[in-house]
Each structure stands twice: as C-alpha cells, then as structure tokens.
Amino acid sequence: MNNLFVYLEIEEGTVAEVSLELLTKGRSLANQLHCRMEAIAAGANLDGIAQQVFPYGVDVLHIFRDERLSPYTTMPHTSILVELFKKEKPQICLMGATIIGRDLGPRVSSALGSGLTADCTSLEIGDHEEKKENKIYKDLLYQIRPAFGGNIVAWIINPDHRPQMATVREGVMKKEILDPYYKGETVEHTVSDFVKDEDFVISIIDRHIEKSKVNIKNSPIIVAGGYGVGSRENFQLLYQLADVLGAEVGASRAAVDAGFTEHERQVGQTGVTVRPKVYIACGISGQIQHIAGMQDSSIIISINSDPNAPINAIADYVITGEIEQVIPKMIKYYRKNTK
Amino acid sequence: MSCEIRVYRYHHEKTQKNTEKKQTKLTKMTFNIIVLAKQVPDTRNVGKDAMKADGTVNRAALPAIFNPEDLSAMEQALGIKERFPGSRITVLTMGPGRAAEILREGLFRGTDDGVLLTDRAFAGADTLATSYALSMAVRKIGKYDLIVAGRQAIDGDTAQVGPQVAEKLGIPQITYAENIEAIDKNKITVKRRLDNGVEVVECPLPVLITVNSSARTCRQRNAKLLQKYKHARTVSERQVENLDYIDIYSSRPYLNLTEWSVADVEADPVQCGLSGSPTKVKKIENVIFQTKESKHLTDNDADIDGLMRELIENHTIG
Question: What is the pLDDT of residue B242?
Fold first, then answer.
C-alpha cells in the first residue's frame, strides 16, 4: 500500500527507454519515502520484462497478459490502472510523457479524481505548509515544470489526492542500473478481473512504425536554430554547418512553429532533451522551455545578433553577430584546417 | 416583363429546392459535432515585457489568440460538415467574457453555434476542474456524435483536457489525430500520430478526438460569414459595449451568442475552479540561469578563426 508505481511502456517485448529512466528516478524517490517501487506491464509478449526491469530496483512487477492489450489502446490500459490503483492506493504514479503516457495519464487521473502534471522536468520530495489551514503536508511530490510557453517554472503539488501523478519526457531523467542481481516479486493478474470486453472499443486497422530519420538525442554535436534564423532558407546554413561538422540540426519551438524545420528536431521541454558535447545555438533567444532541454550540453556556443539574449548567460562562447556572416566563416575555417 | 421574370425565378427556386430535398433524402446523414476551443495568450511571441518585475506573467502584454490546435480540430469538423451538409457544429469554450471572440471566429468559418462557459467560480481551474465544467456543458448541449478538440493548448501544453472530458462523459477517445479519414453513423476512421509512426484506428460514435498540429491547417474566415456574424455578441458583451443598434438582436436571433454559468450547466460549484482542482501551484519561479563565465566574440574573421582553432585543438570538434 501507498507505494510508488511506474507504468511500463512496452513495444514488442522491450521496455521503452523512458520507462527505464523513470524506474531510476522512481527508485530514488521511493528510497526517500521509505516505500516500495512497483511497476505495471500490460501487453502480450511479457516474458522478458522482469529481467529487464528488476535491475532498476523494482520490488513488485504487476503482469497483465492478454493478446488484446498489445498494441496499446486507451480504454483497457485505463481500466487496468484504475482498478489496480483502487486496490493498491499508490501515493505516486509516474509515466512517460509519450503519446501513450499523455493519452493514458489524463484518463486515469480523471477516473480517480487525482491530479496529474504533464512534462515534468524535475521531481523532488518535500513538505508543504498550508498556512491558512495551519496544516503541514509531509513528503509530497514536487512536480516541477516550465509553464506558460516556457516563460516561468511552476512547482505543482497534489496535497489531498492520491496518487500524485506525473509524466516525464524521454531523456529528462538518467537511467542507471541499481543492481544487476536485484530481485523483486512478480504478480500475475487475471485481466478479465480488471478489463471489460467493452473496453476493446477501438480497433487498429493499420499501423506502421517509422524509425525517425532524425537522431538528435544521440548526436555529439548539435547545430540548433531559433526564430532569429529568420527563414526556412536561412536554416539551410545550419544544415551546411551540421553537414561539415558531422552534427545534427536542432531547433527551438519558435523555429518549428514558424515552419523553419520539422517538429522532430525540436529541443526543449516539449521536444527532445539533449546532452551533446557541443551545442551551437543560432538565433535562439533562450526561453526556459528550450534551456531545460539543452542546458547539460558540455559546451554551448551562442550566435545571436542580440548581445542580451538570455541564452548568452549559460553559453561558454557568445558570438555577437549575424548568422549569415558567422556560419560561412566557421565552415570555411573548418574545411581549411581539418582533413 | 418584370412580372414574368419573377414568375420564372420563383419556378426556378422551387425546382432547385425540390432537387435539394431529394438529394438530402437520399444521402441524409448528418452529424452533431462539438468543438472544444480555448482562447490562449500567444506564448509564441513573448516579448521582453511579458514578465512583470515580480516574476509573474503580464497577461496584458500578450495578444489573445485561438489556440492553434483547436483551429485544426475545428477544420476537421468543418470538413465533415462539407461532406455531410446539414451537420451541425457547436463551438464550446470556457473563459472570461472576451473569450466570446473564439465563438465568432468559429462562425466566420462556418460553424453553426457557440457557447461560452463563463463564471467567476471557474477561475483557477486545473485540467480536471476544467474538464468537469466542459463535460457538464456538453451534457447540456445534449445530442452529439463527435467531439473534437486540439491536442493541447499552447499556454499549458498538458494535453489533458481532451481525454479527461472523454472520461467524464464515458466515451472513448482518439488522441493525436492527424485526419478523420471516414465517418458514418456507426463508426469513424482516424489516422493518428504515434511517437515513431502512424496508426489508423476505427471507433464507434460518439467519440472524442484530439487533433495534432500535423493535421491540415484551418481555413480562413469567409467574407460573407464575417459580414453576417460580425455583430454576434453574448448578453454580457452587449451590456458592456452598450450597443445602440440593439434591435438587431431580436430581428436576427443568430447574432445572440449563448453564455452559460455554473448554475446554467447544473455543475457542482465545489468541483469547479480552485476548489475542484487537485493540483495546486506551490510556487512560480522566474528562472535565473546559472550564469557561466562566457567568452565574448565578434563576427570578425580573427574571432571566428580563433574559436574554431580552439575547438579543433582540444578535440571538441573534428
């Protein structure tokens, strides 16, 4: 009872990276709270799941096996979580801020009347004092996220409702194996006790997985552009520099919204979180939601015509100038001085 | 002469009406669609004065716009109305009085009706309290085959209200929709986005669909509809604006925009607004970045070459 739960996202028998990252974070939160960490696996091919997740410190693995649970659809997975949570009364539930997590989380929270915070960039445990009622809440989950388009950071709490639910994007938390020999217990549930036949209301008639062509998450060098790049044409300069350096092109949300480049390249709270060796920010002013997704880069170079762009504060190198001037010079020098 | 023409015209109109009648009888399939839309501050164009000195958001400095993905959702509804004439689209929005603008923007593009849910008691609502209020308004609207909404609003980015409204109404949901491929009285076929691909799903009606930014963009306002509806107002707006051509609201009833309060939708006030919100904001921070010691350079050749040399020499690049 009152444990911390992580919903596992599973594709073809493999647990998603984001779920493993959440198990790592969940383990440390559970240790602080002196509670157990439990995980939920619902799907068809689940034989290898225990082996994959126990090393991350899972104490109890709840298994729901049914061919119809994979691929994921909303209602059956909702029923599993809602019914399980009514029995287990978890204090915290974490899930990935993926398309699945953002489809499932709100539905579950609505059914349970509990609060949910989307796209958290940090999770902490702490107390809260309600001065008006003279009440102290111990060990709440602080759900910390940029809000309002990334212009502020909000600390959200759920004082009175359980579970405290939060979603987190892939790459925000770091996954780390706790102990390769860690052993938890496995609980096999009877799916029909949780899911009604009517829940299988959606039929998937076609589904194809497209591996993303863009892989900015694992690129050691990123050349990223913001609204200040000015146009889709100017963005070509970034592609040229990236090509020469063997880098990937990233973008701020403003640049994506303006149609300069595609959404898969968006870096930030509502995009991808990256930690490259070098991050070259071109014409990016630096809203918090963007900074949240790239601040752990080893070296940050900011190229901006505005010497007071907020991103300059976290940059190692600040080049004040127009990207049309600067980028060709960088390309020229690099070509001349490397093999 | 003029008389003859009139007779002819009358006759022509009559035959046209008859054929229309026949056609609609043959293909009489119409849908009642509700669009959930939100007026949001334009967070994409935040200027330097967007934050007040105390770190709170200066809403007055931001223009209020139709949430972009809600526009895309409305476009999906308008597409269905085009394919199935006689279908009815109602836009439902919750917000302060000025959010009635959203309803007019809908009418200018071809929706049929609009409801503004407005009440001080809704203030401070998180996604759950918002969903509760919207679901009560949907119940009051009554008959619907389909509810569409944007995937998320740009001021919160939570993507929670759509699924939560669906849950409260006890209907299925299809999120991240890119296109409504087909619809008939029994089912709807929707193409939706996955994290790494696409999926086509089928679902019986009624269903709630949230529309992704990758869907087609919304049509522009229609000039005729703009003329027709530009004076459409809610009761409160008419009081505030003190309109002197007030008689048009009785002669043209379609200019009256519906406005509902907590009591109108028979909502439980405790479940609305701040008291109905399980999440609380503990604090808001205007983040001050961990400032690094930066090296400042200009765009002249010597500076750029120096930087590149440094990066190559310490094997950061190359």
Answer: 75
